[in-house]
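Example complex used in Figure S2.
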Amino acid sequence: MTDVVSMKDGIYRNTCPRNCFGSCGILSYVKNGRLMKVTGDPKHGFTQGKLCAKGYAYTQFVYNPKRLKYPMLQTPRGSGNWKRISWDEAYSIIADKIIELNHRYGSNLACGYNKFSGNLGILHYAVEGMFNSIGPHTKPVGNPCALTGKLAVNQSFGHSFSSPPEEMAHAKLIVIWGANPAVTNVHQMKYLYEAKRNGAKLIVIDPIFTRTAEKADLYIQIKPGTDLWLAYGVAKLLIKRGNYAESFIRKQTFGWEEYKHFIETKIELEDVSKRTGAPLEAIELLADAYETTKPAVTWSGLGIQRNKHGSGSIGAITSIAIITGNLGIPSGGLYFMHFDVEHFPLHLYNHKGPAHPSIHTSREIDMSNYPKSALALKDPPLKFLWIASRNIITQDQDLKGWKQLFDRLELIVTVDLYLTKTAEESDLVLPAATHFEEDDLHVSYWHYWLSINQKAIPPYWEAKSDLQIARELTRKLNELSPGFSNFPYEKEPLDWIKAELTPDIMRQYSLTSYEDLLAGPHVKEIDSAQQFQTKFWLNPFEESGGLTELEEYAPEKQQPGVYTLLTPQSLLKIHSQYEMLPWLNQEESDNMIEISTKAAEELEIANYTKMEVFNETGSIVGTAKINPSLPNNVVVAAQAGSNPINKLITHCHSQESSTFFYDSTVKIRKWRDGRV
Amino acid sequence: MIKQQVIPDFVQELLTESSKGVEPLIQKLSTLLSCPILVTDPFYQLYCSTAHLDMNEIVIIPNKEFERDSLSSCEISTRDTISAGFVAPISLHQKHLGFLVMICEDNMPDAALYEQAILFTASLCALQMQKKLEIKQEKGKFKDAFLFDLLYGNIKKKQDIIEYGALWGWNFTVPHQIIVFSFVQYDQFFTDQEKINILLQLVEKELICQQLNPIIMIKQAQVIAVVPQHNPDMEQFTLQIQAFANNVLSQAEKIKLQPQIACGLGKVYANPAELFRSYQEAKVAFELGVLLKTRTPFFVELGLERILFNHDLQDLKEYYDHCLGALIRYDRDHEGNLLETLETLAAHQFDMGKTAAAIFLHRNTLRYRIKKIEEILNVKLDDLNVRLNIIAAFKIKLLRKLS
Amino acid sequence: MFKRVGFRFNADECIGCRACEIACKNENQTPTGIQWRKVTKLAPEIYLSHSCFHCDSPECFRVCPERAFSKRQDGIVQIDENICTGCQLCVTACPYGAPQFNPETKKVSKCQMCYQRQDMDLVPACVEACTTGALKQVDLNTFSDENAVRSLQGFADVTITCPSVVFYPVKPKKRYFLAT
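Predicted assembly (1259 residues):
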């Protein structure tokens, strides 16, 4: 397939590839090879023909004068001296470097990549496939976003688990812990409202009075990172009152006696109230709701696992859903996110590369601690870095580490749609295609719909998909050094898509052929009974390190003047994506820093004046916005923007976890001229 | 066996006559019974009559509650006379269309003698009136579409409007003015069709009295009248139209129409393509008139009021407080009502005599109060600028519902 | 009688997601800065999605010296950009900020309630996009609900213009904030 094929006018099916709960079905209206408008796909059972604001801005996302048009080379790196080059020149520069490094070090371990969630399409695993195809290399592992929660859910269930979101509409009680669907999962809101119209009660627990919290019938504000305690408090009341689903617990759980003993002996309600900041009355109301209302659904948001108590909190909340018996009844449920994509063959991701005579596997480094781990590598050091679907400079922590690492790298290649802050630090940028310009296949991590993404329009200028780049670069490598890569570059995108639809997958999604997906998304059949065949583990349980002694409550642990920094998603961006779109950035100036009324008074910071946020890793100047509902010692900043807040993220690295973004602390002060 | 039925002769006679319309029908009945007959609408407003009566001044008082399909005795009073008579309801399929009234000029005869003839005539009237109503409604559909376009400026060419208008017998080569009548307390869900129809009839009748070919339309809770400027003297015409509006309001008050009626008058436009402005102006005048308690608000006279209504509320509150705040606080602290006194004075153009009469105060008392007011506000009330400020402040109070 | 189209806005169900606002741009491809529809915060915890409300007594209409406005029989107020001279009297007259002046074209444009879609029996793009169902289209000639109100806290005065919109207010809720 060539990129210059002129596309037929008509309506195409696309899927929004963003790192988002929706994975929305899109209908793209194309005329004369141009995307005229988009609408939601009414055949998508979860999104039901709706998109979000960002989705409706896609015409501007595609035809944006700021999009990268052709490959460009920057000499020297960081100078801003960009020169347009041809794709062939770009491939030659990259392939020459890879081959030279291979000759220098006798392997490809000096070559690595950093790729994350910029595009969740299954065909975007072409990046992994491309690196696999050259044999052992340096491979990032882990998931900075959701690993902690994933492992915690796995500990309870033995596998990942999240109820079908459409079923939330039939619940009578919805309890959301640390999620803000009104901003980050807008399409879920209609199921919440459907439930509410049928008499359901919505309870939201969050340190921030979010837009979702605004809509709650009952909102309980707690101190950041104390969800665990609130959950224990609720369990204490339920057990004390004898209101738990005893027969279900005996039949379906492990660790009940230990759990009960732990709650009965270690948890005191006054202590819970002090730690969480929630009054006893609120804890009782929450317990009452769980006790009297069924079916109840419990939703653990990603927010609660962005701190070091995350794993414990997820486990404790899951345990409430279990002991109230809500997992054994129709429309009772538990929500986090699921990892069904792992049930696909993922041929690109799992592509097996050629064997190396002495090195058997790739070198793995933790995504959540990338620069430090990479800098520690020797024999050979990391010399070549490929960045795709990722804007490191606005999203990752440890920017000082990144600076050091970049200085040590001989070639940095960034594939992106725009000249991002990360692209600005690269030697080479390659223009990426939008999802309208490529074929792909999508599975959500929230709902259970499988959907196709059709190539609807010709590429913008010289943009190419990750897969196309992988095909062409590996071909170039083999031209220069025959047999260097074993990437099957003759395979077309549709071949890869069809290969993912194994008979087992086809059965699960009620597909008879690939073409079925062209007529609309298909939903996975979920056998609820089968989900509960295994027993659940109640938390805290021995396998997770036993019934550990609880941390001593130290109310003064947080020093005065030190603020917890929370950096949730903004409404009209996903990380730094969409920030180049004028439609979505019409008024709010960026770098708004929300502070509490008390902090503003104490530090004499007036509304909408310049202020400074700083810690040992750096300093950010932003505009103060006083938020009267913010806890006293919390500061909220949006991600990305011209002065990205990730600079201040401090992550205490621990194995097997995602990044604890919300454990970062900062100090704040009025901004004064002359202070650096 | 079917028994041979005897159909009285009068049935045949009335039936024949009824095909010509309600008027010939009651004429016939009147001849048959040797009594004057009249027909009214459901609100006892005269529809037609065989006697020469002053149409505006007739009042019918039934002596008891009506029973269906029966005759009741009643009293009929005009400007000069009071007569007794019988009244029968005119209705069709439970829809009430009006009354048939027989006036007995001498003494009351036995009702039984007349009952059959009157009830039968009432049925014939019902059929005729219903037929007329249907034709009117059918014609009205096209008429309403045209009027909608006229009122919303959708017909941009003057000539088109003149030609269309001619189809209904309206002459759009002369200037027109729009008057809106509606209910004071209504919302956009107002759906009481019956009340709106009463209002329509009132307006229609009053226009006919003025010898005008009425252009009237119902839109939601509004009755909109498009009135040709039949009098070339603008001043006189304004007085006439004000009288017309006043008459409609008086009529509505007389029949105790609820909710209360108010009106608004737009400007006169010579170009019918600009008439939509008159309509919008009439509606603005209506709303402001309600707030200002002006009986016949003309848009042209509401310049200052419109500016004040649209102005920033916070700013207006400050202005109001600046002008009258001291007085309000004085009243509050001393349980006085000097503000009311000043408001009445302003409403009477600062004329002491009129004001004293209006609030039943002795001139000297009023003079004392005014002095007090001047002290509190620290102003001289004979200063024109002060007067203007005070008038404006009271307008703000009414328009923006300050208290 | 004719259909009288209007909006029905449920403040309790609006999450301020602005999908309506951008769906309008997507459908009508209006330039940046021209906001036929906009979501604003009316009061704490009340969002309002507002556009032209296709008033029963449109002030834009009355003040326009060029007679550029017209009102369809279904109630949609339209502006003919070809007639507009950009005097902006309508911009000042409208209490809802609906008419949008484009400094480049020197013309005013505004929400036309997707009349082309209406003619095909489709709801406006903003209504189609509303994921929670907070924004709907209704026929005001038949709409009736005793819980509906004519205005919301913080909304402009509806007296003169009679906007074709009905509201549902926000319901009371229970909150526990941390002690300060």
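The radius of gyration of chain C is 17 Å. Chain C touches chain A at residues 12-13, 15-19, 21-23, 25-27, 29, 32-33, 35, 45, 128-133, 173-180 (CB under 8 Å).
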